[in-house]
Amino acid sequence: MLIKMKSDTLHRKYALPKDEKVRFSDFARIYIERVSVPGKRSYLTDISLLKNLIVYFGDLYLHEICDYHFEQYRNIRIKQKVKNKNKLVSTTTINREGALLRAMLNKAVQWGVLSFNPIKKMSMFKEEPKERILTEKEIKLLVRSAEVPLKHIILVALNTGMRRGEILNLHWNQVNVDQGFITVQKTKSRKLRRIPLNRSMKRLFSHLYLNRGGRGYVFENPDTGKPLQDIKTAWYSLLRRTGIKDFRFHDLRHCFATYTLLNGGDLISLKETLGHDDIATTSRYTKALLEGQQKLVNSFEVDEDGGEMIDFPERKIKTS
Q1: Is 136-298 a CATH 1.10.443.10 domain?
Q2: 179 and 238 in contact (C-beta within 8 Å)?
Q3: Which residues are within 8 A (CB) of 141 and not within 5 positions of it... i.e. 6 or more apart?
Q4: pTM greater than 0.90
Q5: Which segments of the chain have a pLDDT < 50?
Q6: Coil, strand or helix: which one is 61?
Q7: Where in the chain is the domain with CATH 1.10.443.10?
Q8: How far apart are CA 228 and CA 27, in angstroms?
Q9: How many other CB atoms are there within 10 angstroms of residue 125's CB atom?
Q10: Contact at 8 Å (CB) between 218 and 170?
C-alpha cells in the first residue's frame, strides 16, 4: 500500500502515465529536475552523462531495463570514440554512466515506479587509479615555474590538500591567520571543516591579506569582483613549460596526502583535513606510506662487515 501511495503521488505531481509504463527518457527529465539540479553541485555532469544513456535507453520502459541491456550498452560504448577527439571512450566514463543509471533506477524504486532495481548488482569495468604523485624535484620545478596567481593557488593546494573549487571560492572571512586555520564552507560533502595552516601558509596569506586588504575573495578576478573561474589555460601552459606530463590539478591534493603520511601523519587527521566521509577513502594513501617505509629501510643499512650507514634525508620540500 505504501508503494502504491508513493506511486500515485508521483504520478499526480509529474503527470506520469497511470499504467506505470514510464519511458526512460521521461524519467530522466524528472530525475534531473527533482534530484540532480536541487541536490547536486555536479548536476551538469549528470546532464552530460545522460545524453548517451538516452540514446540507448530512451525508448525503453523502466521495467524493461535489465542487465542484458547494460551489457550491450557497455559493448557499444567501449568501441566509440570521444567526440572531437581521436581516442576511445574510457572505462571510467562508462562506469560513471552505469552508476548514474543505477542511481536513477534506485530512485524509481524509492518513488514506487519500479518494484525493484534489475541492475542493482551489475558489474563495472575495473578501474586503475589515475593518481600521479610528483617527485620532490618536480614539485620544486612546478612551483618555481608558475606565475602569480597560479603559483599561490598551487601552494595552497600542496600545503592544505584543498580542492580546486574550494581554493578558488575561498573568501577572506574563511581565513584566520592569527589562529592559523581555514574554515572550508562549500565542500563536496556539504560539511564544514577546519584546515590548519603551516608556517608557509601563514606567511602567504599574511602577504596576500596586506596586498588585498582582506576584502572579498582571496583569489579574485579584479574585473568582476568574483572568484577566478578558470585556471585551465594557465595550468596547461605551466605543464608544457615544465615538461610534466599526465598530471591534473586534483593530483596536487594527492601529493599533499601522500607526503603528509610519509612525514608521519595519521589517517584520522588526514581524513578530517581532506574532508572524507569514509576512512576507507583516505586509507588508499597507505600504499604510498608503505612505499616510503621501504625507502626508509633501504636508506639505512648495516651489512655484516659493518659497512657504511646512510642517513635518511629530510623530506621537507623547499621551493624558494
Answers
A1: yes
A2: no
A3: 242, 244
A4: no
A5: 17-19, 297, 300, 306-314
A6: strand
A7: 136-298
A8: 36
A9: 13
A10: yes
